[in-house]
Amino acid sequence: MLKFSKRVFNIPKEFILPVAIVGGIIGGLVAYTAYMARIHSYLSDDPSACVNCHIMTPYYETWRHSSHALWTNCNDCHVPQDNVLKKYAFKAKDGLYHSAIFTLRMEPMAVRPRNESYEVIMDNCIRCHDHLNSMCIKGSAISYADVMKGDGKACWDCHRQVPHGGISNINSSPNAPLTPLPKSPIPKWLKEAMK
Fold first, then answer.
1. Sequence ranges of the domains in the chain
2. How far apart are the first and last CA of the chain?
3. What is the DSSP secondary structure assignment for residue 54, as one 8-state letter?
C-alpha cells in the first residue's frame, strides 16, 4: 500500500510548477464561478435567491403579492420537506437543470414545473393544508400519482390563482422590473478598475 502512494505522488520536478499553476487556475475559475452565481444563497430558504436568475422575477413577484408570501417561501412549496438530505438533493438537481437551461438560453417564455416538481408541490399543498383536507374532504387527499392516473384533480386544477396567479411569464408581468434584484457580487474596486 505504501509503494502505491509513493508512485501516485512521484511527479517529475519539472511538472510540479505547471501542474500547480493549472490547478490554481482551474480552482480559481471554479471559485469565481461559484461566487458570481451566488451558490451560497441557494443553501438558505430566502426567496430572493430565486431571483438570482432574472427569468424568475415574474414568479417571485406573483408570489410576493400573494397570500402565501406571509406564511411560506419558495422552498416550502417547491422542494421536498420530509427530510434534509432529500431537500438539498432535490434543490441541487433542480438547480443544475435550471442553470443548464438558462445558460444555454433554452428557457421557455413561461417556466412551468417538471413532473417530478409537480409531485413535490402537491405533496406540500397537502402537508400544509392537512387540516383543511381532513375538514373539507373528510379523509385524506389524493396523491399526484392518482392525478396522473386520472383518479382526481391536482390542487391547482381548482386553485388556479394560487400563489402565482394566472399571469406569470416573462412577457406579462408589468411590475416585474420593480423586484429588488440581488446586489452585484462584483467588488467596488473591480468595478472601478474596469471603467
1. 44-179
2. 56
3. G
- Cα–Cα separations (whole angstroms), residue 99 to 54, 74, 95, 135, 146: 12, 17, 6, 41, 31
Helix (H/G/I), strand (E/B), else coil: 71: coil
Per-position DSSP letters for 43-64, written without gaps between them: GS--GGGGGGSGGGHHHHHHHH
Question: Using an 8 Å Cβ cutoff, are 144 and 154 in contact?
Answer: yes
pLDDT tens by residue, 184-195: 777 788 888 888
Give the pLDDT confidence of 30-74 residue by residue, as tens digits: 998 888 878 888 888 888 888 877 778 788 888 888 889 889 999
- pTM metric for this prediction: 0.71
User: Which CATH superfamily is 44-179 part of?
Assistant: Di-heme elbow motif domain (1.10.3820.10)
19 three-state secondary structure: helix
Distance CA 57, CA 124 (A): 22
